[in-house]
Amino acid sequence: MAQRPDKLEIRPRLPEWLKVKMPGSPRYLELQNLMKSQALHTVCEEAHCPNIGECWDRGTATFMILGEICTRACRYCAVTTGRPNGLDLQEPKRLAEVVQAMGLGYCVITSVNRDDLPDGGAHIFASCINKIKETSPNCRVEVLIPDFAGSWPALKRVIDAGPAVLNHNIESTVRIFPKVRPKGSYELSLELLAKAKDINPATVTKSGIIVGMGETVDEILETMADLLKVDCDLLTIGQYLRPSLRHLAIDRYYRPEEFEELRKAGVAMGFKHVASGPLVRSSYHADEQHDAAALGLPV
């Protein structure tokens, strides 16, 4: 007779404030078909973002370039890990066509890590920005970039293309960073954000923290202070949601009022804008966050 395992890991029940409506509106299905027809990927789908229905209904999406296979294996991320297949040089053109078709005024572009490429894919990022500017001159482009393995010429190539916001997520606190991002570096992420300002002081920089992976509140505040030391302008803070039982276990769920306290702390510390909430992600209402900071509106 088969033995029952001593301990079965059961996915904890989601708190009410983390439950969202399943997507399926006509606008959502329209955009889903548009992405498929152009062989484009979105981080909304690949990372199982809980806001996909809301954002796609608003006509916004975060495009994921450089394929759908990542060369790293961050323990919180749902994106497939493995060996990427080649490089699609026509991707920037197709992306620009979709942005134009959607009539976007604000576009967010991110990517998988491509450590197999000498520049980490920076030239494709730059080409996407340039193509979108050509076809949709009124559309501002935010990029959420990997660390490019510390290649500053690669970073400069992206910055020289003139993104409205340059985002690089630090994701976690220094103590648990090696557990969360074993192939990344806390120090390198900070150095990248600092270098972006060195390359072009006018660059608007942004970073994000995921909470609920084993950090303490004091450590979150320390990470926020570290980001301010490298002159990071914008910050997002959101709850970690475990993609599967193979991923890092959730340490705890932060309550909405705790996120509000973190937001207030970030504003008091000096960030130009802080978006903090259970369902906040890097690109959640990114246009509103950018505009609020640019216009000096209340944060």
Jot down its keywords.
299 residues; alpha/beta; TIM Barrel; 8-stranded mixed β-sheet; two-stranded parallel sheet; globular
Helical amount: 25-40%
Q: Please state the CA-atom Rg, rounded to the nearest Å.
A: 19 Å
Biggest β-sheet strands, sense, barrel: 8 strands, mixed
Global geometry: globular
**Ranges with pLDDT <50 over ≥5 residues?**
1-6
> What's the CATH first level?
Alpha Beta
Overall mean pLDDT score? 85
Total tally of structural domains:
1
DSSP strand tally: 10
At the fold tier of CATH, the topology name is: TIM Barrel
Q: Tell me what the CATH architecture is.
A: Alpha-Beta Barrel
Strand content: 5-15%
Q: Between the first and last Cα atoms, what is the distance in angstroms?
A: 61 Å
Q: Order of strands in the sheet with the most strands?
A: 1-2-5-6-7-8-9-10
Helix/sheet category: alpha/beta
Corresponding CATH superfamily: Aldolase class I
- How many helix segments? 11
Succession of helices and strands: HEHHEEEHEHEHEHHEHEHEH
What this model shows, in words?
This protein has 299 residues and is an alpha/beta fold. The protein has a single domain (22-295), classed as TIM Barrel (Alpha-Beta Barrel), CATH 3.20.20. The chain is 37% helix and 14% strand. It has helices at 26-37, 43-46, 52-57, 91-102, 122-135, 152-160, 177-180, 186-199, 217-229, 256-269, 286-295, and strands spanning 41-42, 62-65, 69-70, 80-81, 106-111, 140-144, 165-167, 205-211, 234-239, 273-276. Strands 1-2-5-6-7-8-9-10 form an eight-stranded mixed sheet, sandwiched between helices. The protein has a two-stranded parallel ribbon with strand order 3-4. Strand 5, helix 5 and strand 6 (140-144) form a beta-alpha-beta unit. Helix 4 (91-102) packs parallel to helix 5 (122-135) and helix 5 (122-135) packs parallel to helix 6 (152-160). It is globular, with a radius of gyration of 19 Å.
